[in-house]
Write a structure and sequence with these properties.
By secondary structure, this protein is an alpha+beta fold. The protein contains 4 helices and 11 strands, in the order E-E-E-E-E-E-E-E-H-E-H-H-E-H-E. It is 24% helix and 25% strand.
Length: 194
C-alpha cells in the first residue's frame, strides 16, 4: 500500500462522518493534523452543499423526480438519494425514506438483505434492503473522498470503519461486503465501537 492518508469512517445510525490525517514520512516526527472531510450532498433539487456529516437517511424518489435529483454525487437517484435532502424528505414523504438502516442491518428477523425498507411503506414505493442502504451511504462517502482527493484513491489509503459493538458477526460481514462494493480497499479495518 502506497497511501498518503489514514481515513476513519464512522458509519452512524443518524449521521456518517469521515476524518482523515496525512501519514507522516519516516523523518517527520510531528503530530498528524486530523481533518473532517466536507461531504458534498444534495440539499434541494439541483442544490449541492458541503456538510461535515452525511445524514444516514435514504430517499427513494418518484419517477418524475429522478431527473432533478441527478448530480455528480447522485448519478443514479433510482437507487436512492442519501444525506441532507433525504433527511428533509423524511418529514414530507416519510413513506419514501429509509431511517436507521444500520439498526435494520443487525435485525436478523427482518432479512438484512431483503428489500423491505422503508418499513410498511405503500406497495408503489420501491423497497431496498439494509445492506443496499449501507452500500449506498458508503458509496457516497467514497465519492466525496475522490472529489477532494482525486490523486489519492481510497483503495490505496489506510481505512478504518467503525461499527457498533452490538453488531453480530453477520452484520459485521455484511458491512464489510457493502464497504468493498462501495469502493473501500479490501484490507480496510473494521473496528467495533466501545
Amino acid at each position: 500500500m502506497v497511501g498518503h492518508y489514514c481515513i476513519g469512517i464512522d458509519l452512524g445510525t443518524t449521521n456518517s462522518v469521515v476524518a482523515f490525517a496525512r501519514l507522516p514520512d519516516a523523518a517527520d516526527k510531528s503530530e498528524p493534523n486530523i481533518h473532517l472531510l466536507g461531504i458534498d450532498q444534495l440539499v434541494g433539487p439541483g442544490q449541492i452543499e458541503s456538510r461535515d456529516s452525511l445524514p444516514s437517511f435514504l430517499y427513494l424518489p418518484r419517477d418524475n423526480e429522478i431527473e432533478s435529483l441527478t448530480t455528480p454525487f447522485v448519478s443514479d437517484p433510482e437507487r436512492g438519494v442519501a444525506g441532507h435532502y433525504a433527511r428533509t424528505q423524511s418529514a414530507e414523504n416519510p413513506q419514501r425514506v429509509v431511517v436507521a438502516a444500520k439498526s435494520w442491518l443487525c435485525h436478523a428477523s427482518a432479512g438484512r438483505t431483503e428489500a423491505v425498507l422503508p418499513w410498511q411503506s405503500p406497495p408503489d414505493v420501491r423497497k431496498v434492503s439494509a445492506f443496499d442502504c449501507t452500500q449506498r451511504f458508503l458509496s457516497h462517502l467514497v465519492a466525496a473522498w475522490h472529489a477532494q482527493h482525486p490523486g489519492d484513491p481510497i483503495t490505496e489509503q489506510r481505512v478504518v470503519l467503525t461499527v457498533p459493538a452490538s453488531f453480530d458477526p453477520a452484520a459485521r460481514e455484511l458491512t464489510r461486503q457493502a464497504a468493498v462494493e462501495a469502493g473501500l480497499p479490501s484490507d480496510f479495518v473494521l473496528l467495533e465501537e466501545p
